[in-house]
């Protein structure tokens, strides 16, 4: 395979850094680096500042594990949201996707991933125990499983289903307007909104 040859060690290191990002190959990383080089110093400093802020100023909400600038995110602290309904999602991208539909007014619980034995991710690596802790307060009436329609998503949903079974809580799943194998962040807002609104009892899916 053809390897890019660099005239500068700094450029090579910068390409390696950009290339470590998901979905970014060497040639795309080089375009990013050359773009930064062409920018004025203030633009480059602003990019650098924002990257540092991502690491230093952001945190995970102590209630739902969503990414936030505060200990409690804006959704959890919004008194107009229905805290009796919790929508379980994989990560921050899914929160954004569902929020953009404008049709969901409950709370969220971000797992931080999906069960994937091949990648060494088990239930203990996800925020499942903190979800179960919320059920002990007797304020939650419904859990909505809004996980990707993939093998990992289905495995995680079934695991949560078994853990929640002892509780007298309604467990729903988003309707199958989303095709098998699709990820929520790539689903159009209308389809995703309808899937949330027309959610079905999770155990009905097990009977199919």
Give an overview of the whole structure:
This protein is an alpha/beta fold and 208 residues long. It has two domains: 9-56, Orthogonal Bundle (Helicase, Ruva Protein, domain 3), CATH 1.10.8.420; 76-206, Dna Topoisomerase Vi A Subunit, Chain: A, domain 2 (3-Layer(aba) Sandwich), CATH 3.40.1360. It is 40% helix and 13% strand. The protein has eight helices and seven strands. It has helices at 9-19, 26-38, 41-56, 92-99, 129-135, 151-164, 189-197, 202-206; strands at residues 59-60, 67-68, 82-89, 106-110, 142-145, 170-173, 200-201. β5, α6 (151-164) and β6 (170-173) form a beta-alpha-beta unit. α1 (9-19) crosses α2 (26-38). The mean pLDDT is 88.
Layout of secondary structure:
Blueprint lengths: L8 H11 L6 H13 L2 H16 L2 E2 L6 E2 L13 E8 L2 H8 L6 E5 L18 H7 L6 E4 L5 H14 L5 E4 L15 H9 L2 E2 H5 L2
Helix pairs in contact: 1-2
